Amino acid sequence: MTVRVKICGITRMEDLHAACEAGADALGFVFYGKSPRNVSIDTAAELVRALPPFVQSVGLFVDAEPVDIEAVLASVPLDLLQFHGDETPGQCARYARPFLKAVRVKADTDLLKYAADFKAARGLLLDAYVPGVPGGTGERFDWSLIPSCLPKPVVLSGGLEPDNVAEAVRRIRPWAVDVSSGVEAAKGIKDALKVARFIANAKEAI
Predict the structure, then answer these.
(1) Which of 15, 20, 92, 127 is catalytic?
(2) How far apart are CA 189 and CA 37, in angstroms?
(3) Which pLDDT value is given to residue 187?
(4) DSSP 77
(5) 45 burial level (CB within 10 Å; 0-12, 13-18, 19+)
(6) Which of 8, 20, 25, 178 is catalytic?
(7) Does 127 qualify as catalytic in the annotation?
(8) pLDDT the model gives residue 135
(9) In 45-111, where do the E strands start and end?
(10) Minimal CB count within 10 Å: which of 15, 22, 97, 118?
(11) In this predicted structure, what is the pLDDT of residue 66?
(12) The pairing of beta strand 189-190 with beta strand 176-179
């Protein structure tokens, strides 16, 4: 199976085109004001309209108010929602859109309970736990904490970059990998060569 690749934190049209041309399966758009990768509704709408066929648009939210998520959905045709905060299963499911639940993994994280609680999620996005930061830290977590019997597709994130993504794919066999800071020239600005190397290395891993 070829792993899927999501490039997250897209803020510019040139980065969108570079990621799509390199073979990205999905692009992530951050709707979280504290993030340096945050995009406005108008910018996100313009970017998503430029996506070619079969590249998914994913909206990332962190404990957002329903009215704010609904405002995004009214203007931005997102394919998938990604929740990075303390949202409940009901809060994630209320928008009648497919969703991922992000889990910040540490030693005592019960991923089997997350999978049971978030039955409606299309998968679990596993990221590193850093106190006070909901994601995008570039930190890697201990992959041995992922149960081999986890009954949900795994989207692996956290500390991935072109030089280690092949190892991650070979060891974990995730459904998809997700990267943001690992392919940046600066926060919110992608490096087209890093993006291309990341995608190639992920998809060529055996």
Answers:
(1) 127
(2) 8
(3) 92
(4) -
(5) middle
(6) 8
(7) yes
(8) 61
(9) 56-61, 80-83, 99-105
(10) 97
(11) 97
(12) unpaired
| CATH architecture observed for domain 4-204 | Alpha-Beta Barrel (3.20)
In this prediction, the residues of the chain whose per-residue pLDDT falls under 70 are: 131-137
Extract the tokens encoding 3. Answer: 């792993």
The vertex-115 CA angle with 110 and 120, nearest 5°, equals: 150
What is the model's pLDDT at position 206?
74
Cα 79 from Cα 127, distance rounded (Å):
21
Between the alpha carbon of residue 140 and those of residues 3, 24, 144, the distances in Å are 19, 21, 12
Q: Is 108 known to be catalytic?
A: no
**Cβ atoms within 10 Å, residue 182:** 24
pTM value is 0.95
Q: Using CA atoms, how far apart are residues 146 and 150, in angstroms rounded to an integer?
A: 7
Q: Is 197 exposed, middle or buried (0-12, 13-18, 19+ CB in 10 A)?
A: middle
Sign of CA dihedral 38, 43, 48, 52: negative
Residue 132: what pLDDT? 63
